Structures are given as C-alpha cells and as structure tokens.
Fold:
Amino acid sequence: MGAFKSAINSLSCFQAALVLVLLIAAAETQRAEAQSSSSCSTELSSLNVCAPFVVPGSTNTNPSSDCCGALQAVHPDCLCNTLRVAARLPAQCNLSPITCDTN
Structure:
C-alpha cells in the first residue's frame, strides 16, 4: 500500500511539473509572438523611405538604396502577413473586393 501511495505522489509531482513546464512554454510563446508583432511593426515603419516610389502617380521609377535596404530588413513573413491583412480590409469594411492589374 505504501508503494502505491508513493507512486501516486510521484505521479502527482510529475503531473505538476509537466503542467508548470507547459505553462512556461505557453507564456514564452505568447511573449515571442508579441515581440514578433512589435518587431514587424518596427520593420514596416522603416519602409516610409519607399513612399516616393510606391505612391500612385510618382515619377520615381527606381527605389532608392535606402528603400531597398529598409525592404531587405523586413522579414518576408512580416511583409506577406501585412499584405494579406491589407487585402482583406475591403471585405471587412463591407466594400467591394478590389482587383488589381498586374501591370
């Protein structure tokens, strides 16, 4: 009987330790996601040097080296996720979908 209680107590300690490890892992994941989001915002804000190139009607045909450097510093996932979210905005605002020419 003593061995049974010892096994249960050991299992309970193991379960408690496992729960603690899972909670720490979840907290770290949330912290990393928050930092990633913050980092993405910072990366995107550096792209303001590209505005003269991307504004419709602009006569600038080539992006500046500052723009290219800023774009290179943006993580591809950050840029893709931002474009994906921006593409969904019209539907979320109850507007007609936008179709863009590729030219």
User: Anything to note?
Assistant: The longest helix spans residues 2-45. Helices lie at 2-45, 51-54, 65-73, 76-92. The chain has four helices and no strands. Residues 2-92 form one domain.
